[in-house]
Amino acid sequence: MAEVAKSLYPSKKTERSKIAIIGAGAVGATLAYACVIAGHASEVVLYDINKAKVEAEALDIAHGIQFTPMSSVSGSDDIEICRDADVVIITAGAKQKPGQSRLDLAGATVGLMEKILPNVLKVAPDAIYILVTNPVDVVTYASLKISGLPPNQMFGSGTVLDTARLRYLVSRETGVAVQNVHAYVAGEHGDSEVPLWSSAEVGNVPLKHWGPTLDGGLFDAALRERIRTDVVQSAYRIIDGKGATNYAVGLAVTNIIGAVMRDEQRVLTISTLLNDWEGISDVCMAAPTIVGRNGAGRVLTPPITLSEREGLTESANRLRKVARDLGF
């Protein structure tokens, strides 16, 4: 009997990877689109209770798959579609209206988490969970209590977007590429957030030593406060103009997902449960944190000023009060 020839190029078993997004609204759909372009996983799925909407969003993205590194995109109103996901991102929640603060959304959104989380955990108990829904810090804290998951496995998107906004504005003032601006926003993803100016650098030059800005000014207290106000007000301006923020937040969260899926050990200002960080405990809020395949890792402690520490403490107290008022 003739010997069966063996292939010189034996096929390799490829490991499937899966990203599940809960909520097919503006943020969820944009995030799915960004994930497909980035190619962070072999499969992206969208879940939403609106069957027609979620299927249409997924189909629209799927029609462009040949132009991306992805192989599968699908949408459903059946939670089973999320089974065995590596990462679950929750974007579903009450929509922020013009004039509303993020904290105004807390009660309705936490109530929604109490309904969503038990069902998702049944099909994806081992996934890394990223909360995006506002107010993200309070929602993350409540979701940890509801789910019982460890803090490394569940965290919020925090101020990753705010940090990007801060770096963008510093880039505009200095004329240096935003990729070379190293600065963080910590605390609440909202009105009480704190730019960590004392550790901000452009290249390896401390911002306080940078010298003249493009218009000949200095990075003095007035300019820093103007930038901080612009960062805080950015979302309100966008919501007033178009009804929602979705593009930049989609890119920001895709960046977090990439850090998890590729085990990048990247420092990101996610919202994680803090334990004696700058004297702050038992609250979820943004701090520079190492993010990798196991989720949220070590929380870093950059040098900060007394006024920055006071601002962070105030931010923590504000968030803790909202959580307590909701029974958490």
From TrEMBL:
<dbReference type="GO" id="GO:0005737">
    <property type="term" value="C:cytoplasm"/>
</dbReference>
<feature type="binding site">
    <location>
        <begin position="134"/>
        <end position="137"/>
    </location>
    <ligand>
        <name>substrate</name>
    </ligand>
</feature>
<feature type="binding site">
    <location>
        <position position="48"/>
    </location>
    <ligand>
        <name>NAD(+)</name>
    </ligand>
</feature>
<feature type="binding site">
    <location>
        <position position="53"/>
    </location>
    <ligand>
        <name>NAD(+)</name>
    </ligand>
</feature>
<feature type="transmembrane region" description="Helical">
    <location>
        <begin position="20"/>
        <end position="41"/>
    </location>
</feature>
<comment type="pathway">
    <text>Fermentation; pyruvate fermentation to lactate; (S)-lactate from pyruvate: step 1/1.</text>
</comment>
<feature type="binding site">
    <location>
        <position position="157"/>
    </location>
    <ligand>
        <name>NAD(+)</name>
    </ligand>
</feature>
<feature type="domain" description="Lactate/malate dehydrogenase N-terminal">
    <location>
        <begin position="18"/>
        <end position="156"/>
    </location>
</feature>
<feature type="binding site">
    <location>
        <begin position="162"/>
        <end position="165"/>
    </location>
    <ligand>
        <name>substrate</name>
    </ligand>
</feature>
<dbReference type="InterPro" id="IPR018177">
    <property type="entry name" value="L-lactate_DH_AS"/>
</dbReference>
<feature type="binding site">
    <location>
        <begin position="93"/>
        <end position="94"/>
    </location>
    <ligand>
        <name>NAD(+)</name>
    </ligand>
</feature>
<feature type="binding site">
    <location>
        <position position="96"/>
    </location>
    <ligand>
        <name>substrate</name>
    </ligand>
</feature>
<dbReference type="InterPro" id="IPR001557">
    <property type="entry name" value="L-lactate/malate_DH"/>
</dbReference>
<keyword id="KW-0812">Transmembrane</keyword>
<dbReference type="InterPro" id="IPR036291">
    <property type="entry name" value="NAD(P)-bd_dom_sf"/>
</dbReference>
<dbReference type="InterPro" id="IPR001236">
    <property type="entry name" value="Lactate/malate_DH_N"/>
</dbReference>
<feature type="binding site">
    <location>
        <begin position="23"/>
        <end position="28"/>
    </location>
    <ligand>
        <name>NAD(+)</name>
    </ligand>
</feature>
<feature type="binding site">
    <location>
        <position position="27"/>
    </location>
    <ligand>
        <name>NAD(+)</name>
    </ligand>
</feature>
<dbReference type="InterPro" id="IPR015955">
    <property type="entry name" value="Lactate_DH/Glyco_Ohase_4_C"/>
</dbReference>
<feature type="modified residue" description="Phosphotyrosine">
    <location>
        <position position="236"/>
    </location>
</feature>
<dbReference type="InterPro" id="IPR011304">
    <property type="entry name" value="L-lactate_DH"/>
</dbReference>
<dbReference type="Pfam" id="PF02866">
    <property type="entry name" value="Ldh_1_C"/>
</dbReference>
<dbReference type="InterPro" id="IPR022383">
    <property type="entry name" value="Lactate/malate_DH_C"/>
</dbReference>
<feature type="binding site">
    <location>
        <position position="245"/>
    </location>
    <ligand>
        <name>substrate</name>
    </ligand>
</feature>
<comment type="similarity">
    <text>Belongs to the LDH/MDH superfamily. LDH family.</text>
</comment>
<dbReference type="GO" id="GO:0004459">
    <property type="term" value="F:L-lactate dehydrogenase (NAD+) activity"/>
</dbReference>
<feature type="active site" description="Proton acceptor">
    <location>
        <position position="189"/>
    </location>
</feature>
<keyword id="KW-0520">NAD</keyword>
<keyword id="KW-1133">Transmembrane helix</keyword>
<dbReference type="GO" id="GO:0006096">
    <property type="term" value="P:glycolytic process"/>
</dbReference>
<protein>
    <recommendedName>
        <fullName>L-lactate dehydrogenase</fullName>
        <ecNumber>1.1.1.27</ecNumber>
    </recommendedName>
</protein>
<feature type="binding site">
    <location>
        <position position="102"/>
    </location>
    <ligand>
        <name>substrate</name>
    </ligand>
</feature>
<keyword id="KW-0963">Cytoplasm</keyword>
<keyword id="KW-0560">Oxidoreductase</keyword>
<keyword id="KW-0021">Allosteric enzyme</keyword>
<comment type="function">
    <text>Catalyzes the conversion of lactate to pyruvate.</text>
</comment>
<dbReference type="GO" id="GO:0006089">
    <property type="term" value="P:lactate metabolic process"/>
</dbReference>
<feature type="domain" description="Lactate/malate dehydrogenase C-terminal">
    <location>
        <begin position="159"/>
        <end position="322"/>
    </location>
</feature>
<dbReference type="Pfam" id="PF00056">
    <property type="entry name" value="Ldh_1_N"/>
</dbReference>
<keyword id="KW-0597">Phosphoprotein</keyword>
<comment type="subunit">
    <text>Homotetramer.</text>
</comment>
<feature type="binding site">
    <location>
        <position position="182"/>
    </location>
    <ligand>
        <name>beta-D-fructose 1,6-bisphosphate</name>
    </ligand>
</feature>
